[in-house]
Specification:
Length: about 240
Amino acid sequence: MEIKSISIIVAMQQEANPIISALGLVYSGKISEQLPMLNYEGITNGVNVNLVTNGICPTYGIDLVASQPSILSTYVCVEKRKPSLIINAGTAGGFKKYGANIGDVYLGSPHVCFHDRRINLPGFSEYGMGFYTTYPCEVMAKKMALKTGVVSTGNSLDFSDDDKRVMDTYKGSVKDMEAAAVGWVANLLQIPFIAVKAITDIVDGSTPTKDEFLNNLELASENLAAQLAKIVCFLSTNDLH
Ligand code: ADE
């Protein structure tokens, strides 16, 4: 697959800033006049790259994290840019039972799921979890020494017993709030998709998630940016397989 253009969807501005610098992207305005999502663009290694942040909530004044804004960002971005590949980049929680460390960068593979859409009706359970496929990236992960795992998305930062029960059924090893939302749009529109997630907190550790997240957001975002620059470089010269 020849990759001519890449769209990167990022929820928080603080996660996006180091990526924007690392890829040399320039702010080009809102992705759509009526929406808060912001667009940055540039050419990296001959590939047209744009990055969309979900922007700031006009009501609550905070970054538009979680699934609904990410679906909107992704859809509008695809309509405007027609990318050959979509990347959802951001931070996430990892698990010590799967060997995660703060600052690790994971590629979502072989799919991304939802853990908080529990619909106990015939056929609807699977729909709820989603299992949106990611473009095969195991070779790239190996070459770049990145970890891989099932990224699991929910609309909460906390981790309930029900979240755990669902994630354990598919060995979800990375917990975030956006990947499956972006993955759903990408799968629906048949656009190759990868999720790149840097670990800010250890979900099954002893430190409260909020403290660990805030303490490690900067470090994880720097690692995320460094790896994304390498990923874009890799994609511009290699096939993903
Ligand atoms: N983003 C960063 N850490 C997270 C966690 N533990 N759960 C959901 N989203 C996250």
